[in-house]
Specification:
heterodimer; A: about 150 residues; mainly beta; 9 strands; about 30% strand; B: about 170 residues; 5-stranded antiparallel β-sheet; 5 strands; about 20% strand; elongated
Chain lengths: ~150, ~170
């Protein structure tokens, strides 16, 4: 879990698993709801290459107790989302290690032309992105069931 | 999907029900002769689409009220709680949905900051998100095919077009 001076590893394989905490109210009839995923701000996840599902609930104060953990693959993240008017957005993974969580990563978005930074998607692109990702997060992807 | 038929003109009026007050001495309640039929009637009422729809809206409003007590970071990822503006707009949309007899499956705070009203009917799903910024977006999606998302114009106060689009998607 701890970084211990390790460098970030920028490469993500499409088959790599990512772990996301969720609340029970956001998982209805066998599928995660889009309101349980954020994209206007960067969505944090733990990468499976360096962690286990349980690590997503690790906290010395127990603040994540009772939350659940779902997994999805890097390849489940829609690479590109178009909209009728406005720019096309691309979505990609960034490894952003923290001192107490080396596996910490974020889902970033940017214009297709790639400005190199993070660009918040429009509301419709955000919703399309989250809906598309949610379709890949079903009962089989629940690794720890949420109790709250 | 749940379906009830509002009377003509209901779009501008309250939902109508028929009520009969009974008391402990009412023969309809106390008489053994009526007990069986009363029990059967109550069972049917409680299973009726009308009653179940009412229960779903009551649950949604209860959940909406509960969001007022959420704190910053309620989702464990630092999200904003729904503000008063989002809650008020969500209440208005619930009113419109009730007039249209389209009961939500779930109402939750969204991690994007605001309120989300979700619908699930078999493999078909839809969501209306009301953001703290005052914006509203909606989407319909299914297991197969491309999802559809659109922003709701601020002038579309009752969301009638969006509600109809969601109803058609869920019924398909």
């Amino acid at each position: 879990m701890y970084r211990r001076g390790r460098e970030a590893v920028p490469d993500f394989a499409g088959s790599e698993l990512l772990y996301l905490r969720y609340m029970s109210q956001h998982f209805i009839q066998g599928e995660l709801l889009p309101e349980g995923i954020r994209s206007q701000l960067k969505q944090s996840v733990n990468r499976g290459r360096f962690s286990e599902p349980e690590d997503a609930l690790f906290s010395e104060t127990g603040k994540y107790d009772g939350l659940g953990v779902v997994e999805f693959k890097v390849a489940d993240i829609p690479e590109k989302v178009e909209q009728p008017q406005g720019p096309v957005y691309v979505f990609f993974m960034r490894h952003e290690p923290e001192d107490e969580n080396y596996s910490h990563s974020e889902i970033w978005s940017d214009h297709e032309a790639r400005t190199g930074g993070f660009r918040s998607p429009s509301r419709t692109v955000s919703l399309l992105f989250r809906v598309s990702l949610c379709r890949a997060i079903r009962q089989e992807q629940v690794r720890i069931t949420a109790a709250r | 999907m749940p379906f009830c038929l509002p009377f003509p003109g209901a779009i501008h009026g309250p939902t109508v029900g028929i009520y009969r007050v009974t008391d402990r001495n009412d023969e309809a309640v106390t008489s053994p002769a009526y007990a069986t039929s009363l029990h059967t009637s109550l069972e049917q009422i409680l299973k009726s689409t009308f009653w179940l729809t009412k229960v779903r809206f009551a649950g949604a409003r209860r959940r909406l009220n509960a969001t007022a007590s959420l704190a910053q970071g309620w989702d464990s990822y630092g999200s904003e709680p729904p503000n008063a503006n989002a809650r008020r707009r969500a209440e208005e949309i619930l009113d419109s949905l009730e007039v249209a007899c389209l009961a939500p499956t779930q109402l939750t705070p969204t991690v994007e900051g605001g309120i989300a009203i979700s619908f699930v009917e078999g493999d078909s799903r839809a969501v209306i998100e009301i953001y703290n910024t005052g914006e509203i977006a909606a989407a319909t999606y299914s297991d197969q095919g491309e999802p559809t998302a659109w922003e709701v114009e601020p002038a579309e106060t009752r969301l009638l077009g969006s509600i109809e689009q969601i109803r058609v998607h869920l019924a398909a």
